[in-house]
TrEMBL record:
The keyword Signal applies. Belongs to the FKBP-type PPIase family. InterPro entries: PPIase_dom_sf, PPIase_FKBP_dom. This is Peptidyl-prolyl cis-trans isomerase. GO terms for molecular function: peptidyl-prolyl cis-trans isomerase activity. It is an enzyme of class 5 (isomerase). Residues 1-24 form the signal peptide.
Length: 288
């Protein structure tokens, strides 16, 4: 936790905050090299062009990124093509799918949005797909898909089958002050500045296009055997994280939204870009 939330970003933490570990006794996680985001059109469509807020129908196939392959496509992780029918329609650009899918279909300058009939290959770093999260193989698994490990970059082939025009989504601007929402009010000891606390947490980048405002997940210690410990107000964590926990009672669960000036500022940290607003869900385990 101490290195995870250190206000001055450690130079070694270049891939994701999980690579920073949770303190001196926690082994450093393996850093997974991340490719650059890249879009390549293999077929340029001639039909309706997709825009944010449109309902789209696509075919897709996803692979683990493999730098040793000429096309960078490793083992297959999922595919609508294998099922013989397109994926379930979804509204593009509103956070109903991972960020990398939205950006692949809508394009990022100088690459334009896809048109119906078009086919596009996207190389997606982990921060644009599942981040630090993992995904097991489906059960049953008739097509032999492999699991997606933490911080895995992926490659996707997309085909835009249909577009139903919609409206531009509403974007909720990030707050400029620290926000705290108690989802569960604890009944134990109350945390104050100077207390040593242990917490379980999950962190996401803020995304104003999503209903829950949670963009890519950048870290979580929920699966760790021992929750992280740090001292409130000591500088062991970014100011917003420490200040967001003050006032919680043991057993409580709180959503904390942290503006950039109380997080990593313009410099960013690892997979967290500069001037990013962060969202944490925190459970307070102990107070000493």
């Amino acid at each position: 936790m101490k290195s995870m939330f250190q206000y001055i970003a450690a130079v070694a933490c270049v891939a994701a905050l999980t690579a920073c570990g949770g303190g001196a006794k926690t082994p450093t996680a393996v850093v997974v090299p991340q490719p650059a985001f890249q879009l390549t059109d293999t077929v340029v469509g001639t039909g309706t062009q997709a825009a944010a807020g449109d309902l789209v129908v696509i075919n897709f196939t996803g692979y683990l990124y493999d730098s040793t392959k000429p096309n960078f496509k490793g083992d297959k992780v999922e595919s609508s093509v294998d099922t013989g029918k397109p994926a379930t329609p979804f509204t593009v650009g509103v956070g109903s799918v991972v960020t990398g899918w939205d950006q692949s279909i809508l394009g990022v300058a100088p690459v334009a949005a896809m048109k119906v009939g078009g086919k596009r290959t996207a190389i997606l770093p982990a921060s644009l797909v599942y981040g630090a999260a993992t995904r097991d193989v489906p059960n049953p698994n008739p097509y032999g898909y492999v699991a997606i490990k933490a911080n895995s970059p992926l490659v996707y082939d997309f085909e835009l089958v249909n577009v139903v025009k919609g409206t531009v989504p509403v974007v909720v601007p990030p707050p400029t002050t620290l926000q705290k929402i108690d989802n569960v009010v604890g009944t134990g000891a109350v945390a104050a500045s100077g207390n040593s606390v242990t917490v379980r947490y999950t962190g996401w980048l803020y995304d104003g296009t999503r209903t829950d405002l949670k963009g890519p997940q950048f870290d979580s210690n929920v699966a760790k055997a021992n929750p992280d410990k740090f001292v409130l107000g000591s500088g062991d964590s970014i100011p917003g994280f420490s200040n967001g926990i003050i006032g919680m009672a043991v057993g409580g669960k709180r959503t904390i939204t942290i503006p950039p000036d109380q997080a990593y500022g313009a410099a960013g940290n690892g997979s967290i870009p500069g001037n990013a607003t962060l969202i944490f869900e925190v459970t307070l385990v102990t107070v000493n």
